[in-house]
Structures are given as C-alpha cells and as structure tokens.
C-alpha cells in the first residue's frame, strides 16, 4: 500500500465557539487521539496546519513528535495554508490525505481501508463518506445518492456500495495525488473564507459526474464523529468514557454503575478490581488486582497496590499506595506521598510529600506533611507536623513502632527515635531518644473550692 502524506487542519477560524484540538476526550487531547491512529497505521509524513494563537500550546502538547507545522495567520485563509502544506511535498505522485484534527475516534483501520480503496477507484480524488446512525446526528454534509450524484466503491461488492435511495455523510476527509491537488487549488476561486474540508467536498461535487472524483464508503460512523461544538465535545466524552469502561469490564474489572464513572484512556486496571459509582480516575494511574475503589473517589497519576481499599470521597494525587492498605473515607493524599502496605489512613487525614511505612495508622483528623514515618507507628487523632516556618519547609522523622498520642504537634525539623511514646497534647520541639516518653505540656493544677469562691466574690 502507498503510504500517504497526511495534512491535518487544527484551525478554528475566527470563531472561539469551536473547541480546540487540545480539548480532551477520555483524558487525552483530541489531536493526540488522531496522531496515535496514524502512528498505528505506520504513517510518518504528517503536516499540521494550526492557528498562530495555539501554535505554542500545540507544539508543547505534542512534544518531540515528528510532525511539520504550518502556521495559519489571521490575514491568511485556510486554503492558503493548505497550499503551503502542499508545497512541502516535492513529488507530484505522492498521495495526500487531508482531514480535520477534530476526529478523536478515527482508527488506523479506517485510514488504511480508505487509502487502499482509493487505489481501486481509478479516480483523481476521493472523499470518504459514512452511513449516518440517525436523522438527528449532524456529523457532516449529507450526500443523497438519489439526486444524480454517482458513488463508486471500487467494485468491492454490496458491502460498500451506495444505493440511489440511501443518504450518506461526508466525513471531511479527502485524498488525491499531490500534483493534481496543487493544480486544482491554484485554479479554485473563492479561497477566502472556504474551509479546507469544504474544498474537498467541492472537488467531489464538481468531479463526481465525470468520474474524476468519487466517494468511498466506510460504514463505521462512530469513527468519524467530528467535534464542532462544546455539545459535541461532551457527547464525545460520553462515548469515549463508555468505551473505556466497556474495555475494562471485558477484562475482568467490576463496575457498579459504569455510566457514572470517568476513567481516562491512560489508566491501567488489573483484573478483579472493583470500581464504585461517581469515581474519577485520571492520568498515569495503575490500580492493582482485587482493589476496591468506592463511590466518589478522585485519583490522578497514582499507583494503587493490590487488594487496597480506597473508601468514599477520598482524593489521591500523584501517590503510591501499598498492598492491602486502607485509605479514607474523606482522606486527601497529595503529590509525593508513599503509603506502605497494610497501612491505614482514615477520615479527614491529609498526607503531603511523606513516606509512611508498613502498617502505619493515622486514623483521623491529622496532617502529615514532609515527614518520614516508620513502620508500625500509630499517629493519634489531631496530630500535626508543623513543617513550614514561614520561609522554608522542614522534615519530621518518626521512627518505627512509635506511639503518638492525640493532639500532638511536631515542630520540624525534629526526629523521634524508634519505640518512643509521645504524650497527648504535647508540642515536640526537640529530638526524642528511642524508647523514651516525651511530654511537652503544662502540668495540670486542680484548685479546690475555686468555683464557689469565684461565685461568692461576685455577690
């Protein structure tokens, strides 16, 4: 098969009502969905036409991907940019595939089938059409076979043929040889204000009767959904997240109410995990086998060990959770935190940039920031590591097997030795030796009869 050059238009024109190709579908920018499809199809020669306002953002999002950029200025037209892109292609016999960048569901199979089909059509150009699922869906220009417009699928039989009574939808994708396309573009009048996809449709309209341009049918309409409005973007996310949920359920993941669950395409979940309703799982997250993620949990770019239990309405961002750990409910774990296996982080506990060893318990109402907590340590209710002095963050180091009573403040930097006990209500400002009792609070004084004397004094 001849591998084509690909020209992708990412421009929005003068209207800001059209979503950017950097808008996300199932957690991945639309343009990256599309480029990944071309990577799978082994297509390497890609030219992106982009608005000057978004050039820096798109270049940053694509990183070191091997693409050529053509910038469309405010004063220039979309077809001027197409002409510049075609100018980068030196061989007139090279195939050129042109499409919009707002098609997140386009698959490698669709691309390869169209390129293959064009070779069989014996025409100078071809557009790609699909079958609309319903009258209500607007995904392109409708072509009516019964109005004298000829269709040809290259003799591939009834599977791709278009009858005179059926309606089909132009996907905005067209293909031709570079030299012929350059020639037609030079002679085209009305370049100003014409969209690139409309130019492809015009080629078909003017050339279909003579056979110069033909149409190729791909019946998988979902592949050609185009995002033109924010309503389209919402619908695309609904479909994208549904497809992700279906994928994981097919691979042994239990989902109690999948239509309420948002799992990014980049997430990996092992067999036997259970995902509750109204959960959001984003980024480079991995969930181990047998883990339970309960209702309302929000997870981003985190590693959840096997058989861990994340209880309702907990927030985990950039953290690592060991096997058999329990988190929440209503816990918040911030970036850089590592929680060991069999550890327990309870309700209204916040952990930030800290490492908690195996079996550590911090069951309620505590803040652990910039700390190292040894295995088997118990952190009492209301404990705070005072890590910030107004200028710098400082570290608290608590050893193995330490018992920390309720309402303790550790004023960092401070170290607590293995096996120590910290009395409730203490403010610890100095290091505590191993297996020592530390109490830092005023001694209790009971004044007998004080209440009666106070009352009598008032008369």
Can you characterise this structure?
- This protein is of the alpha/beta class.
- The chain has two domains: 220 residues, Spore Coat Polysaccharide Biosynthesis Protein SpsA, Chain A (Alpha-Beta Complex); 209 residues, 3 Solenoid (UDP N-Acetylglucosamine Acyltransferase, domain 1).
- It is 20% helix and 28% strand.
- It is built from eight helices and 38 strands.
- The strands form five sheets. The chain has a 16-stranded parallel beta sheet that branches. It has a nine-stranded parallel beta sheet with strand order 13-16-19-22-25-27-29-32-35, with no helix packed on it. Strands 1, 4, 5, 6, 7, 8, 9 and 10 form an eight-stranded mixed beta sheet that branches.
- α2 links the parallel β4 and β5.
- α3 runs antiparallel to α5.
- About 7% of the residues have low confidence.
Radius of gyration: 32 Å
Total separate domains: 2
Give the distance, in angstroms, between the N- and C-terminal Cα atoms: 105 Å
What's the CATH H-level homologous superfamily of the largest domain?
Spore Coat Polysaccharide Biosynthesis Protein SpsA, Chain A
**The CATH topology of the largest domain:** Spore Coat Polysaccharide Biosynthesis Protein SpsA, Chain A
Helix content: 10-25%
Uncertain runs: 135-142, 144-165
Q: What structural class do helix, strand and pairing data support?
A: alpha/beta
Percent in strands: 25-35%
* Largest sheet report: 16 strands, parallel
CATH architecture annotation of the largest domain: Alpha-Beta Complex
CATH class of the largest domain: Alpha Beta
Instruction: State the helix count.
Output: 8
Number of strands: 38
